[in-house]
Amino acid sequence: MADARPFHWEYRPEPVTRELFQVEGGCALSGSVSISGAKNAALKLLAAAVLTGERCRFTNVPEIEDVRVMAQTLRELGVVVDHPEPNVYEVAAGDVEWLFVPLEAAAKMRASFMLLGPLLARFGRVIISNPGGDRIGRRPVNLHVDAMRALGAEIEYRNGYYFATAPGRLRGTEVRFPSVSVMGTENVMLAATLADGHTVIRPAAQEPEIDDLIAFLQKMGANVQRTYPDTIEVDGKRRLRGAEHRVSSDRIEAGTFVVAGAVTGGRIMLTNAPCDHLGAFLETIQQAGVGISCTKDTIEVDGTALGGAGFRAVDITTGTYPGLATDIQPPTSVLLTQATGASKVHETIFEDRLEWMGELRRMGAKIRILDSHRAVITGRSKLHGADVEIGDLRAGASLILAALAARGTTTIHGAHHVHRGYENIDGKFLGLGARIKRLEEGNDATSS
Ligand code: UD1
User: Fold this and answer.
1) Residues 6+ apart with CB under 8 A from 10
2) What is the pLDDT of residues 176-203, one digit of tens each?
């Protein structure tokens, strides 16, 4: 077993290749697009694989930057991570040498903090950096840390790092969260699978990606189940085994393409789309007048359902699942710029998740930002091309949507934010007939 060696280490961010998207809008999308595996499931599945020394295999893993960061972070711990073919990852954590998750990983991706629970539960200690992630307001981790303490962990915070130990073994307990947290639920659930005794997590987040993680843990031999919609119970085991799992489809990517079909006045078909996980979103956009028909794993989108008259204004409020996902709020807001009348947007989960609307305004959208949680969008706006900058992942995809709906050419800087969470987004849009190019900043050569 490894020890956490002393280190002398200075954070030097790697230079990011500056890329931009150039989009010529005004073209109705048509055809079919296949939805990739869910980012927010894949990252936690990779983290869960360190709960065992045996090999785990994952298929339908999205080819995105966040997955590459998680894979590299694991490799730096001494975990073997193979990537034998596209969308397949194999993880073997038999020999973990280095129980240290550095600032470099944490600064790139908040989900690196998902390694706290499994490393602590299996090895009894870890030093892990305070995470960064999207620039969408304060993103504390107090709920994770308090929950680990409830399981018996001792955790000190010094110089940006959490020094966590579990003298003996973590102990099962009742973990009561003061508010719902997706990764908080997942972190404590992973830790509890190897703890001594019974753990009850309440209120547990209800996002479908958590149920994907539960299904994988059960294949590993863990005794974990959702006993009520907001309750997860775990009986800890001494060991778990390797297992194989197919990552479920990405509901946020699916929602993004639904809006793309709608705002371009197109007709598109999404395959491998998790219709069942998109209830609140599909209800909203149907109220707005988008034509939707679903089967178990396809969604047909008809953006011409209202005959080009413009969509209907709808008020939206984000919430924890099964409410409207905060991650789908930015794409939905783009749709609302194409609706006639005033739509209120209430973002309840994160502060500052409306800031990107400043860029949308540069494209001709009429948006009044009332405070850090509320905005009013008045449509229908004739969007036009502009020079805009991406600040975070979901805002980035949404600016592409606005550009597809706009007249003229839009240059969208900061494309790397989008690659964090969308597999081959420009290729998928090209396949639907969009005019989109990925270029290096200051260089006219197309790279897609
Ligand atoms: C996850 C998702 C993210 C999504 C979010 C909400 C991943 C990798 N990311 O993020 O895409 O937008 O759920 O659906 O799965 N909070 C605290 N203390 C904590 C943790 C959270 O105060 O320790 C607050 C947050 O600031 C936020 C709220 O709780 O206001 C919910 O956040 P949470 O559900 O934890 O989001 P993440 O799990 O980080």
Assistant:
1) none
2) 999 999 999 999 999 999 999 999 999 9
Express each pLDDT in 252-292 by its tens digit: 999 999 999 999 999 999 999 999 999 999 999 999 999 99
Q: How far is the CA of 224 from the centre of ligand 1 (A)?
A: 22
Residue that has been written with the tokens 């020079």 in this structure: 387
Residue nearest ligand 1's atom 31 by CA = 181
Q: Give the whole-angstrom CA distance, residue 119 versus residue 27.
A: 49
Ligand 1 atom 13: the closest Cα is on which residue? 182
Give the Cα separation of 438 and 448 in Å (integer). 6
The overall pTM is greater than 0.90: yes
Q: How far is the CA of 77 from the centre of ligand 1 (A)?
A: 25
Residue nearest to atom 16 of ligand 1 (CA): 140
CATH architecture for segment(s) 39-246: Alpha-beta prism (3.65)
Which residue's CA is minimally distant from atom 7 of ligand 1? 40
Residue 76, both tokens: 């730096």
CATH class of 19-35+249-440: alpha beta
Return the beta strands (E) in 185-310 as ranges: 198-202, 223-228, 231-235, 244-246, 267-271, 291-294, 298-302
Domain assignments of the chain as residue spans, ordered by start? 19-35+249-440, 39-246
Would 19-35+249-440 and 39-246 be classified into the same CATH topology?
A: yes
Say how many Å lie between the CA of residue 183 and the centre of ligand 1: 6
Q: CA of 414: how far to CAs of 294, 407, 427, in Å? A: 34, 21, 17
How far apart are alpha carbons 325 and 389 in whole angstroms?
Answer: 23
Residue matched to tokens 């190897």? 194
- With a Cβ cut-off of 6 Å, ligand 1 is lined by 40, 43, 110-111, 138-144, 179, 181-184, 325-327, 349-350
State pLDDT tens for residues 419-430. 999 999 999 999
Residue nearest to atom 29 of ligand 1 (CA): 181
Sign of CA dihedral 182, 183, 188, 192: positive
